[in-house]
Amino acid sequence: MTRPLVSLLAAAVAAAVVASCGGAGDGGPPRSAPAGTAPARDPTAPTTAGTPVAPAAGSWRRIGPPPELPADRPLTAGFLIVDGVYNTELTAPYDILHHTRFHIQPGIEVFTVSPDGRPVKSFEGLEIAADHGFADAPPIDILVVPSAEGSMDRDLDDAALIAWVRTVGGKAKYLVSLCDGAFVLAKAGLLDGHAVTTFPGDYDRFAQMFPGLDLRVNLSYVRDGNVLTSEGGARSFDVVMHLVDYLYGEQVAAGVGRGMVIPWPPRPGQVPASVVEVRPLAPR
Known about the structure:
By secondary structure, the protein is of the alpha/beta class. Helices cover 24% and strands 14% of the residues. It contains 7 helices and 11 strands. It has a 7-stranded mixed beta sheet with strand order 5-2-1-6-7-11-10, with helices on both faces. A two-stranded antiparallel ribbon has the order 3-4. Strands 8-9 form a two-stranded parallel sheet. Helix 2 runs parallel beside helix 6 and helix 6 packs antiparallel against helix 7. The N terminus and C terminus are likely disordered.
């Protein structure tokens, strides 16, 4: 049984301006390697190597039949937590996936995983318990990588962390990153061949570090196959609401949304960005 995280007030999160993952740009101390805010890009501009590309906007739709879900157990969602993890990018998807159990059985079992199984301290100062460490984490169907203070530098240099993400993510059915968590997935080689997005202020840094990846900008999130990446911040709810809808259908997603005061499906113009579907989402 998992221990509940300290949940943030949904209303406070929804009112937040998506200025950063929790450091530079919101009045707090800058991150160790701030990248500056990238200017808005013309969706019709031609693609050039290493340059973020803004695709034409479009709304998501289901492609193909719903996935086959385990009949005898819940899906498992493992959240990677490290010191400096940002509250919103952790608690927003955690709450959404946890609340599936109130609308469908068996729903999704959520748990946290830290490198050594010990508690971590978030960037904002909350102490968060880990349910497991790398050594004893159970199989993970949905690997969720929230952004953290070190996602663009320190965590990328942690060989054990990147190796764990590469191994576990390679076996997971779905990968989800929030904000700069995309840097960690990219370093582990799990975003190769996929269209992705990340925190708007770090588009240029991401493009410089991973020039071979198909970076999409000015979107709340991007879903490409089994890989879902989000710009983070207050938009961290959108990507997992999308995933819940795909896994369990609109009725379940709408029920989760009612509990979180998140209208679903989103009305036109309500979500200020849209999703790019490059390939059907299908279990590995």
